[in-house]
Design goal:
The structure holds two protein chains of two kinds. Chain A contains 13 helices and no strands. By secondary structure, chain A is mainly alpha-helical. At the A-B interface, helix 1, helix 4, helix 6, helix 7 and helix 9 of A face helix 1, helix 3, helix 4, helix 5 and helix 7 of B.
C-alpha cells in the first residue's frame, strides 16, 4: 500500500513539473512586463492579446511562420520521396550490393551535425544558397536522409518478397511496384518517419543559424533566438513567440498523440 | 528484361544519392581535409600544417579541455537521471489504463517543443530575480537554496542538464514501457511462487529483461547529450566564463566567432571520434550484461 502512495505522489510531482511551466508560459503571454514583476505566478488581470498582435505587427512573425512551413513541408516531402525510393531499391537489389548501399546511407547517422557544419557552410555560400529557403531545404533533406533510409528499409525488408516477385511475373515494372505496392504497404512506417522528420525540421535551429541572416528567410526557431537579444527579459513577448512557434506541433500532438509517440520513438530507437 | 529492370533500380537511388553526396558526404570528408590546414574561412588561401591543430587541441587548449569535461559532466548527469527517471515512471505507468496513457502523453509532451522554446521557458524559471524557482524556495523559507542557477559557474551546467532531462525523459519512458510490456507475465508468477519480494522481482526478472531497452535509452541519451547544441546555445551561449561550453558549442564559436575554420574542423573530427568511442564502449559494457531466460 505504501508503495502506491509513493507512486501516486511522484506522479503528481512529475505531472506538475510538466504542467506548471507550460501553464506559466501560456498565462504570461497575456501579461505586460510590469505585471510579470508584480505577479509571476498568478492569473493575468485581464486576457489581453496585445503581445500577440504586436509580434505580428512589430515583427515579421507571419513571414517566419510561412518560411518554417515551406521549409518543413518541402524537406519532409523530399526526404521521404528519396528515402523511400532508396529503401525500395535496397530491398529489391538485396545481397552484398544492397547491404553496401544501405551502409553508405546509414553511416551518416553516426556523424553529428557539428562535424560537417563548417564545410557545409562553405559549400552553401559558394553555391549562393545562403539566405534562401532552397539552401535550407537541400541541407535538411540531405542530413535527415540517413535516418529515414534506415527506418524505411527496415520496414520494407519485412514485407513479403513473394509479393514483389509475383508483380514482376505479372509484368509490372519497378516503378509500378514501387508506387502501387511498396509505397501503400509502407504507409505506417512512412507516416511515423514523417512525424519524426516534421518535428525535427520544424524545431531545427542550427542550419538557419548558419545560413540565414536576412529577415525575409528566417524560420521560427532562429527568429525566436533573435527576439532574445531584442526583448531581453521581456518574457511576455518571448513566450508569445514560443506559443506561436509551438502552436502547429501542439495542435497536431493533441489530435495525433499516438502517432507522435510512435513516430518519434521509432526515430529515436532507430536513429 | 530482368537486367534492364535491375538497372532501373539503381536509377531510383540516384536523386537521393546525389543530394547526399553533395550535402553530406562531401562536407564530412572536407572536414577531415580542412582539419590539417590553418584556414580562417574568410580568405581563399590556406597552408597545410599537418597535425598541428590536433596537437594544439590536445596539449595546449584549456577551453577545449574544459568543454570536454563539461560535456562529460553534462552527459553523466543526463544519462543517470534521464535513464533513472524514465525507468521509474515506466514501471509506474506500464499498464495500459486510461490514466497511465494520459500521463505518458503528458510526460512526452516537452519532446515536441523546440530547444529554443524550452530554453526560454527554463531561463524564466531559473531567472534569479523573477524566476519561479527562487520565488518558490523563498516562500518555503529555504532562501539558502536559492541560486543564480545559470549565472553561477559551479552549477550552471547542471541546471541545463536538468532541463535536458525534463525535455526528453518522456520520450525515453516510452521505450522502457515497450520493453517492460514485452516481459512475459508468467516470469513474475514464478517469482511470486518462489517467494521473491518486490526488489528481488525487479533485480532478477525486470532488470535483466529490460536491459535491451536500457541499452537503447542510454546510448541515445549519451549521443543526445553530446549534441545538446541548441539548448545550451539558446540558454547561455556557453557562458558564464565557458562554464556551460560543450564541444558542440565550442566548435561553433571557434569557427563562426573566432574564424578559425581549420582549427574548428580538427576539433569536430576529434568530437566525432569521442562520440564513436563512447558509443562503442557503452555497447560493449551493456551487451556483456545481457541475459536470456
Amino acid at each position: 500500500m505504501k508503495v502506491k502512495y509513493i507512486k501516486n505522489g511522484l506522479n503528481v510531482i512529475y505531472a506538475l513539473l510538466i504542467l506548471v511551466p507550460l501553464l506559466l508560459v501560456f498565462l504570461t503571454t497575456f501579461k505586460s512586463p510590469e505585471e510579470v514583476y508584480r505577479n509571476v505566478l498568478g492569473l493575468p488581470k485581464e486576457f489581453r492579446f496585445e503581445n500577440y498582435t504586436s509580434l505580428f505587427v512589430e515583427q515579421s512573425m507571419s513571414t517566419y511562420f510561412w518560411n518554417s512551413v515551406i521549409v518543413t513541408i518541402s524537406s519532409v516531402f523530399l526526404t521521404l520521396f528519396f528515402a523511400s525510393m532508396i529503401a525500395f531499391s535496397i530491398t529489391r537489389i538485396g545481397g552484398i550490393i544492397g547491404n553496401l548501399i544501405f551502409a553508405l546511407f546509414t553511416l551518416g547517422m553516426m556523424v553529428p551535425a557539428q562535424v560537417n557544419m563548417i564545410p557545409l557552410y562553405q559549400l552553401v555560400s559558394s553555391l549562393g544558397l545562403t539566405n534562401s529557403l532552397i539552401g535550407l531545404i537541400a541541407v535538411n533533406s540531405a542530413v535527415t536522409l540517413p535516418v529515414a533510409v534506415f527506418i524505411l528499409t527496415g520496414f520494407m525488408k519485412s514485407l513479403p518478397k513473394s509479393l514483389f516477385e509475383a508483380c514482376t511475373i505479372d509484368g509490372a515494372n519497378n516503378w509500378q511496384i514501387y508506387t502501387n505496392i511498396a509505397l501503400p504497404l509502407s504507409l505506417p512506417s512512412i507516416s511515423a518517419t514523417a512525424i519524426f522528420l516534421f518535428v525535427m525540421n520544424w524545431n531545427d535551429l542550427l542550419y538557419p543559424l548558419l545560413f540565414i541572416t536576412n529577415n525575409d528567410y528566417k524560420t521560427l526557431p532562429l527568429a525566436l533566438l533573435e527576439f532574445q537579444g531584442e526583448y531581453l527579459t521581456n518574457y511576455p513577448m518571448l513566450f508569445t513567440g514560443v506559443m506561436i512557434a509551438s502552436a502547429p506541433m501542439v495542435i497536431a500532438y493533441v489530435f495525433l498523440q499516438r502517432y507522435f509517440i510512435d513516430g518519434m520513438t521509432a526515430g529515436a530507437v532507430k536513429g | 528484361m530482368k537486367i534492364k529492370q535491375n538497372k532501373l533500380l539503381y536509377l531510383f537511388i540516384l536523386p537521393g544519392l546525389i543530394l547526399y553526396l553533395i550535402f553530406f558526404i562531401l562536407p564530412t570528408l572536407s572536414a577531415l581535409f580542412y582539419s590539417i590546414t590553418n584556414w580562417d574561412g574568410l580568405t581563399p588561401e590556406y597552408d597545410f600544417i599537418g597535425f598541428e591543430n590536433y596537437v594544439n587541441l590536445l596539449t595546449n587548449d584549456s577551453i577545449f579541455a574544459k568543454s570536454f569535461f563539461n560535456n562529460i559532466k553534462f552527459m553523466l548527469f543526463v544519462v543517470i537521471f534521464q535513464t533513472g527517471f524514465s525507468l521509474l515512471f515506466a514501471l509506474f505507468l506500464v499498464k495500459n489504463t486510461k490514466t497511465n496513457i494520459f500521463l505518458r502523453a503528458l510526460y512526452f509532451f516537452p519532446t515536441i517543443l523546440s530547444s529554443v522554446s524550452v530554453a526560454f521557458i527554463w531561463s524564466f524559471i531559473y531567472d534569479p530575480n523573477l524566476g519561479i524557482l527562487n520565488t518558490f524556495l523563498k516562500k518555503l523559507n529555504m532562501d539558502f537554496l536559492a541560486h543564480n542557477w545559470l549565472g553561477d559557474e559551479s552549477i550552471a551546467i547542471f541546471s541545463i542538464a536538468f532541463v535536458q532531462v525534463w525535455f526528453h525523459t518522456g520520450q525515453m519512458l516510452i521505450i522502457f514501457v515497450a520493453g517492460l510490456q514485452n516481459i512475459p507475465e508468467d516470469l513474475y508468477e514464478v517469482a511470486k511462487i518462489e517467494g521473491a519480494n518486490r526488489w528481488q522481482k525487479f533485480r532478477y526478472v525486470t532488470w535483466p529483461l529490460v536491459a535491451p531497452a536500457a541499452t537503447i535509452v542510454m546510448a541515445y541519451t549519451t549521443i543526445q547529450s553530446f549534441k545538446a547544441f541548441d539548448l545550451i546555445f539558446a540558454m547561455t551561449r556557453g557562458g558564464p566564463n565557458y562554464a556551460t561550453e560543450i564541444l558542440a558549442t565550442n566548435i561553433y564559436s571557434t569557427a563562426f566567432r573566432s574564424f578559425k575554420f581549420g582549427y574548428a574542423s580538427a576539433e569536430s573530427v576529434l568530437f566525432m571520434i569521442i562520440i564513436a568511442l563512447i558509443t562503442f564502449i557503452q555497447f560493449r559494457v551493456l551487451r556483456a550484461n545481457r541475459v536470456q531466460y
